[in-house]
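A quick aside before the break. I want you to see a complete sequence-to-structure record at least once, exactly as it would be stored in a machine-readable document. Don't worry about memorizing anything.
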Amino acid sequence: VLSLSVPSVGQCASSVFSAGLDGVIRGWRLPTPDSFTGLVDLYSLTQGNNECGPILKRPGSANDAVWSIAVHPSLPLLASVDTASALTFWPLQSDVLLDDSAITTDPITPSRTVFLNE
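That is the input. The structure line, written in tokens, reads:
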């Protein structure tokens, strides 16, 4: 993992996004705290369900490492910069998916890519 972005309160508040050497950005759903204690039991069997979220990979990136990612504080938008000097903007859903049937392994298409070296 080269970069991690934890959105502030708002659109994607229960999500975390990570990026690495393989050029893939992945969304992760944070575990839900216990309603009585407010704590997260990491060893609970229910916490292992539905943690994997969307996969974001720039088409034609040839596994360029993603050095930095950031989620907009109030809009469902993620920005990334990779080793090819590409600044890429990704549309996000309001939160990382909670339904197993809706999780897909197909990468999300970026809304815009700007090459900073051109």
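Two observations worth writing down. Confidence is low (pLDDT under 50) at residues 98-103. The two ends are 27 Å apart (CA to CA). We'll return to this after the break.
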